[in-house]
User: Fold these one by one.
Assistant:
Number 1:
Amino acid sequence: MPPYLPPEAHRPLTLRDVSEASGVSEMTVSRVLRNRADVSPATRERVIAAAKMLGYVPNKIAGALASQRVNLVGVVIPSLSNMVFPEVLGGISAALEDSGLQPVFGATDYKADREENVLYEMLSWRPSGMIVAGLEHTDVARAMLANAGIPIVEIMDIDGEPVDSMVGISHKRAGREMAETILNAGYRKIGFLGSKMPDDHRARKRLEGFSEALQAAGLELAEVEHYAGGSSLAKGREMTASILSRRPDLDFLYYSNDMIGAGGLLYCLDKGLDVPGKIGLAGFNGLELLDGFRLRLATTDACRREIGLRAAEIVAGKNSDGVIGSKHIELSPIVNRGDTIR
Amino acid sequence: MPPYLPPEAHRPLTLRDVSEASGVSEMTVSRVLRNRADVSPATRERVIAAAKMLGYVPNKIAGALASQRVNLVGVVIPSLSNMVFPEVLGGISAALEDSGLQPVFGATDYKADREENVLYEMLSWRPSGMIVAGLEHTDVARAMLANAGIPIVEIMDIDGEPVDSMVGISHKRAGREMAETILNAGYRKIGFLGSKMPDDHRARKRLEGFSEALQAAGLELAEVEHYAGGSSLAKGREMTASILSRRPDLDFLYYSNDMIGAGGLLYCLDKGLDVPGKIGLAGFNGLELLDGFRLRLATTDACRREIGLRAAEIVAGKNSDGVIGSKHIELSPIVNRGDTIR
DNA sequence: CTGAAAGCGCTAACAA
DNA sequence: TTGTTAGCGCTTTCAG
C-alpha cells in the first residue's frame, strides 16, 4: 500500500512523524502499517490517512534490525545475459509472489571468487534464504552458506553434494540420454562443440555423460571444438564451419547449448546440408528461441522454470509434506528430437 | 574479503564474538573490518585472524542503521527476460564495479501498479540511488521518487519530464530516422508490427515518430499488426504471415523490436521472398542475436550498455564536470541498414 | 591508536 | 485496544 502525494519532506520521515500527524503512539502506527489486526478501525484509518498524506515510506533497515527478520531471498546465478536464467528467475518470482518474500539477484560471471564475494555481500544482509546455481563452490563459500543458519537451495544440478537442499537435473544423465538417442538414430561420427570446460561445470558433466554413453557403445567423440566467451548464433556458425572444415565426414554435432546449436543449424541450412539426413544436430536447454527456425533443433529441456519454482517453495517453507530439513529433488530432463535427428 | 572455515556457529556471530576472540574492543574490530587506516598492523592482524577463524559475516542491517548509509542502488526495469535489459544491467554493474555500490534489480512486468510496489519495497531499504526504466510512472510513484532525497535516474527514454536525471535516446527520433532511411531507399507501402501500445511507451513513441515522418512525406502506414505477450521469433513469423496475407502488396515491414523482426526475416527467407529487393525489413534495438542470420536485419542501436554506464555514473556521483544536480543526457540512436534495406 | 557512551528507527514483550 | 520500555548490532562521537 504505497503512500500518496507527499508535501515537501527532505529528511526521510519516521514513524514519529506519522505518530505526531495522527495523534497516535508510534507503536500503534507501527501496528497499522504492518497490517496487524489488533487496532480499531477508526485508529487505523487515521493512521493510514496521515501516512499517505505525509508520503511515509517505512525504514526496513530499522524494522529488520528490531524484528530480526528480513523478507529477502538471495538468488545467485552465473549470468543475467545468458538466456537460460531468466526463466529460472521467473519461476522463483512466481513461487515467492505471495509469500511475503522478495528475491534479490546477483551474478557471478561463472567465477568462483566473484561468487564468494556476492555470497558474502548477500549474507551480510541476513536474508531468509539463499538459492544458488550449481554445486561447485569454494570452501569458503560453502562454509559461509553452511553457517548462515538459513535454508540454502542449490539449483540446476544434482550431480554432487549440496550444502543443504538441491533441486535440478542430472547433467550426466542428460548427456547420456542424448547420446543414446543419437546412437539409436544411427549416427556414428559425432562431434562436440562447447565452451572451455573449467568454467561451466554443468556443460562438463553433460559431456562426461555423453562420452560415457558413446564408450558404452564402443565409440568415442570424433572431434571437439571449444570456444571461450559468451554464446551467440554467430559463434555457433563459426564453430560449425571450423569443425566441419577439419572433419567433413562428421554425421552429428552435439552443442553444449541451444544458442550455438541454433547458429550451427542456420549454418547447415544455408550451406544446403541435408539435415537430419546426412548430418544431425542437437543442443541443450529447450530455449523458446528454437521455435522460430524452419527446422526445430533437437534439444534437452532442462526444466528451468520448474527448478525455480521448487527451489523457491523450499525456501518459503511450502513443503507439501511435513518434513523439515533438506530436500533433494531430481527433475527429469526431457529429450526433444525436434527435426534435426532423423 | 570473505572469512575462512568457521567452526560450529548457529547463532549469527556479532562483533562482540570477534572482539572476545581477539581480545580487542568491538570498536577496534569494527575499524579493522571497515578497512580504516587508524589501527596498528599488529591489532589488525589479530582481528582479521579471529574474524576468519570464526567465519564472521558482518551485519549490514545494523551497520546501515547506525551509519545511515546503504551501499545499494535500486534498478527497476520492466522485464528480465526481454533480451534488451541484460545489456543495460551489464553497463550499470560495470560502472558501479569499484564505487562500493551494489545494484539490486527489480522487474515490473510493464505494469504501473507493480512498478509502484517495487519502488516502495526498494525505497524502504533506503538505497543510495535509484535507476528506473522509462519516464512514465503513477503520480504516487513519482512522488515517492521525488521525496526519497537520493539521486534518481530515469533511463532508456528522454521524451518527457524526468523526476530528476535522465539518460537515454529519443524514441520519437529513432522512429523518425528509421522512417527517413526507409523512404530514402524508395519503399512506399509500409506496414508496422508491434506490441499492444499502452504497455510499452517507448515502442509507442517510436511509432509516433515513424508515423510523423511518413506524414511529412505525404504517406501513412499501409497496415498495422498488433500482438500481446512476449516477443519471440515464432511470434514474428506468425505476425508476418498474417500481415502479408492481408496485404501482399506491402514493400516494407517495420517491427517494434529485433526479436519479432528476426522472426519475420526468417519467414521471408523461407518463403523465398526477395529481401531487400521486393520487401524490406527493420527492427529495433541492435541485438547481438541478429549477427547470426544469413541477412543482417536492419535495426536501430539503442545504446543500451552506454545508457547503463552513464546512469550508474550519475548515481555514483562520478560526474566528470563539477556540476551538482540533475543531468539530462541524450544519446544518439544509430540506424544500421544491415542487409534488409536496399 | 584505542576505548566508552549514545543512539540509528523500529518492534517484541509487557503493562495498562 | 493502546502505550511504555528495552533493546536489535553496529557506527558516530568524543575522551583518553
Note: The mean pLDDT of chain A is 93.
Number 2:
Amino acid sequence: MYTDLMNAPRTARQRARAELTREILDAARRQLGEAGPSALSLRAVARELGMASSAIYRYFKSRDELLTALIIEGYDEIGDAAEAADDPAAEPDERWTAIWRGVREWALTNRHEFALLFGTPVPGYAAPPQAAVAAGRMPLALARVVADAKAAGVLAPPPAPTCDPALIDAGTAELLPGAGFDADETARVILAWNRLVGIVSYELHGHLHRVTADDAGFFDYTARVSGAFAGLRFA
Amino acid sequence: MYTDLMNAPRTARQRARAELTREILDAARRQLGEAGPSALSLRAVARELGMASSAIYRYFKSRDELLTALIIEGYDEIGDAAEAADDPAAEPDERWTAIWRGVREWALTNRHEFALLFGTPVPGYAAPPQAAVAAGRMPLALARVVADAKAAGVLAPPPAPTCDPALIDAGTAELLPGAGFDADETARVILAWNRLVGIVSYELHGHLHRVTADDAGFFDYTARVSGAFAGLRFA
DNA sequence: GTCTATAAATCGATAGAC
DNA sequence: GTCTATCGATTTATAGAC
C-alpha cells in the first residue's frame, strides 16, 4: 500500500514524499531493535530524521498505521527472500533447502523485523486483513515445492500419524489452487512453515545457546528433517 | 530465589513481606498483557497495589530484577505443568500427549507469561544464567519419556536424515544423565521441544487463524507427529 | 518500610502560525 | 507541509521526612 506511493513518482513533490516515506520506514525499522515493537515511537522516528514530531503525521496518521506498513513490508520481504531463493528447475530437496536458507538469512539480517512478524504480538494492535496475503507468500513457496514433487510423482507417502481433514480450514485446503493437496499434505506444509519459523525464532532468541553447537549446521539438519517429513526425498 | 523468601516465613514481618512480594508478582503478571513485557512498569504495579512508587523498590530494586523473577517463575510453572501431567507408569505415547497438553493448557491460561518466556526477548534485558536451570525442566520432561522408551527397548530407529554429533553442544549431550542418548536422539528431543513451543506460539499469536479449523485437534495431531518423529509408537 | 516530593526524561496527539 | 508550543499523561529512580 505504501509501496504503491513509491512507484512511478511523477512530480518532484511526489518524489519528495516517496523518499521521505521511505526514510521514515527505514528509521522505524532501525528503532524496532532499540526498544521493541511495542515501544515504537513516532516521535523518536521524527527526531532521528530531524523533523518535528507533528510533521510525521502527514505520512502516517497513527502509530498503528506505521506498524501496519512495517508488518506488510516485512512479510513481503520474507516472501521475496523465499521466492528469490527458489529455482524451480532444481531438484525438490535443493529447492527446499535453498528456500529455508533464504528465509533464515533474511531473518538474521532483519531480526527485529522477524520478531515483529512472528514474535509476541504488539499489545493493543491488530493486523489488518490485507496483511494475510503478504503473510502467505513464504509458506506458499514451500507448498509449491511439495506440489511440484507431487506432480512429478516423487512425493513420499505420509508418515504414520495422519491428519483428520476436519482439522484443516476449508480455505486453506485450497491454498495452492490446482495442487490437489489432501489434508495430510496440507498439514505437512503447515507444520513445515511452523518448523521453519520456530527454529529460526529459537536461534534468534537464544534458546539454542549451549544446546546446539553450530547454528547454521543444525538449521540445515532441521531443514532436511522437515523436508523429509513433508514428503521430499533427501540424499 | 524470590520463592525462597516465601518459604518458612517466621516472623509476622517476614510473612507480610512474603505476601506483598507475592502480590507484586501477581500484579506484574496481570500487567504483562496490557502493554507487553517491555512496557512492564514498576510504577504501574505500585499504583495497582495502592502503594507509593518508591515503596516497591524495597522488594525489587529494579525493573530487570522483577522481570527475572517473573521469567524464572514462568519457567518453573511450565516445568511443573509438564511434570504434573506426566504419569511415569503410563505408556510412552500417553505420557507424551499428556505432557504436551499440560504445557498447552498452562500456555492458554498464562499466555502473557508464555510470551515472556518464548516470545520476543525484552530489549536491553538479558536473563541471568540461573534461569537456564528452570528453563530446562520442560524439555527434560519430554526427554524422560524418550529415555524410558529407549530403556524399554521400544524406541523406533531414527528417520532418514540423521544428525551430525558435532552439531550438538557437549553439555546438551549429557542433558539426561544415564539415558545414553546419541546425537540423533538428542536432536529429536530438541526438535520436539521446539515443535511444542512453536505450535503453541502459532496458536496463541493467531498464525493458525483460518489455517486450521480446530486448535485443540490440530495440536493433538502435532503432538502425535512430534512423538512419532521422536521415536515413540502411536496407535 | 512507607510516605511525599522531585528530577529529568519520555510518550501520542492536537492547535494554530506561517 | 512544516514549524513552535502545548496538553496531559507516562516512565525510572532518588532524596529525605516520618
Note: Residues 12-35 of chain B form the longest helix (24 residues).
